[in-house]
Amino acid sequence: MRGLQILVDGFAISTLYALGAIGFSLIFGVSGVLNLSHGGIMVAAAVAAWYIAGPLGAGQYLGSLAGVGVGVVFAFATYAFIVRPIQRSRAIPRDETEIFVLTATLLWGIMIQEAIAYFFTDSPITVRPLVNGVVDILGVRTPANEILTAVICWISIGLLWLLVNRTRAGKTLLAASINPRGLTLLGFELSSIYLMVWAIYGVLAAIAGVLLATFLGTSSNNIGVLTASAFSIVVLGGLGSVSGSLIAAYIIGYLETVTAYLISPTLRTIPSLLLLVLVVYVRPQGLFGRR
Amino acid sequence: MKKAAVMRRRAVRGRQMVLGALGAGALLLPVLETARAADPIRIGVIAENSAISGIAITNGAMIAADEINAAGGIAGRKVEIVDYDDHNSATDAVRAFQRAVNQDHVVAVIGSYMSEVALALEPWAARLHTPYITPGAASNEITRHVKEDYAHNKYTFHGYLTSTAIADANCDFSHDFLVEKLGMKTTVMLSEDAAWTKPLDEESKRCLPKAGLQVLDSVRVSPDTTDFTPIFNKIEGQRPDVITTGISHVGVQPTVQWHSEQVPVPMSGISSQATTTSFWRDTNGATEGVIAQVVATPDVAITPKTIPYAAAYFKRFGVTPAYTGYTTDDDVHIIAEAVGRAGSDDADKIVAEMEKTDYVGTVGRIAFYGQDSEFPHGLKYGADFVSGLMIQWQDGKQVTVWPARVANGSLKFPSFIKLPTQHASAQ
Questions:
Q1: Which residues contact A182 (CB under 8 A, 6 or more apart)?
Q2: Chain B closest CA to A76's CA: distance in Å?
Q3: Minimal C-alpha gap between B153 and chain A (Å)
Q4: Which of A206, B212, B272, B401 is 20 to 30 A from A177 in CA distance terms?
Q5: CB contact under 8 A, A9 and B252
Q6: What ipTM goes with this model?
Q7: Tell me: the pLDDT tens digits for B192-238?
Q8: Contacts of B248 (CB under 8 A, 6+ apart)
Q9: Torsion angle, CA of B215/B219/B223/B227, rounded to 10 degrees?
Q10: Of B329, B349, B366, which residue sits at a domain end?
Q11: Are B355 and B307 part of one and the same domain?
Q12: Which residues pair with B145 in a beta bridge?
């Protein structure tokens, strides 16, 4: 009974972690950018979804869609106003670009956090669930919304897989992550590939943000934690490896759930952080890392 | 080289300007002294502006000051609020306190609903000899410090119920309703790990059994817990009739998951965020059926002042006040009147007058316990003073269910809740 509960509960949370981290990993794989405003984009999407669905009265479906839209806008803004100017700047030495991007996205994330706290207060809110009610899975009372969340996440991940492996645009994306220089030599415009990857990232991060907020609620105070959890999943899975992130998300999700059920809910994140330290120590490239 | 020289010159000029200003200040001093009678009564307000319970402190103080000033002030002196945002940080709050006293020359400070922050300000009230009152923190430590070292800590007042009084009120309600009317016999306590819940849990463990509820377990959770599924799972396994809550900073999560997972046990007790009217919106209605303790609601006339105050607040800010909005309004009046009675800005005289407070405010008749009581400078608890109310969320509204003399509705639970009588009929 308890084992089953852990299985069901851990699955939903792990799937959400996976969706959040895949976009993060993709961006790094393709353009070498570690976007530390990740949590900010997720929470911005969630707060927009909440505000449009609730106080503006648009209903949960329209609100959630609009929230995803806002997330994409934030992702593009991050690329257009934060990342690209730094990558193009002549004043910043080439080999220091990454650290500048890291710092700038971190600050951008803090700006988003403060802005949300200012306009919407930092008290936690929940996005209205897409469906109500509970389903009995072999004696485990599971909210229907939790099942829907897992389904939506997996559909998104499936679509991403189709896009990358079955379409021309996706294949250039894959090629860009393997050898960007080779791609430019073949006459591809890297900047349009970057735009595409940021769009994909925006959609994934925003969906994850909105769904997480229907499930666990959200607040501007969560931004740092969300970024950190995506970061640790991606490091554990191997920087730039999308399938690695997927597996790492399940490892961390289940490790947390098992800890919460069998040891104590307060210690939830500790074992996964210990695991992360261990992995960085013995296998710095992560479980499935290429570099 | 040149740069350094310029900077040095600037520094020298800066120092000269400071000296000049000091000189001018010295000349002005006698003038200021005589002008004091017409000086405003400046009250510092320190709160976290991005939290619902924090901003209500600042807003409540503004309304109180405007009300006093519209009526001509206190002995011809206007009340002026100087507000500071502490970002929910004890360090920021202490810095604000120092600035309020040393630079902005306030006569007293109203600050913070967080026990941790209030406890950080208490020693500064003592060091800077400035009356300080917290409109929302609950920890017993606040008054305990006054008791242990009255001479130093007498500047601090506790403008909200102590955790012990809060637990007592909840026990009284539990006895009158949950035990007597609904036939409940057992409970599991669910509290967040914070300074204010330690004395709360201690008192609850003592008074709940007396009220007729056997405490099966006491679960303490970290305020940053995000997933309550394992916790509810465990509690449900113990089969209590009710969950007695002690939550404030943990957010919407327990309420939302309680609802979405349809935990069949009612939640009743202290849930600070459920006291604000925006809680319904923030949880998308998941709070339906939750019972929470409040000091006042916008539509219950605890005193003749409650409803007009809540209406004025709503008119100005578009939301109803959080609990700290009510208590802060009272605190501004208490301080201003004490300054008026003292006829001076002298801290010790103001403290002496504040101790004599007997003021009918928005949350009840306000008086402080004396030096020899268990909780010196704490708010007096009881039916004749401040006792609080218990509300239950029903269809988007807070319905007052206790005490009987002000109740405007009875208990009603969502369909997934199983009450003891239903347990019995099902078996």
A1: A175
A2: 27
A3: 32
A4: A206
A5: no
A6: 0.74
A7: 998 889 999 999 999 999 999 999 999 998 887 878 888 998 899 89
A8: B192, B194, B196, B270, B271, B272, B273
A9: -120
A10: B366
A11: yes
A12: none
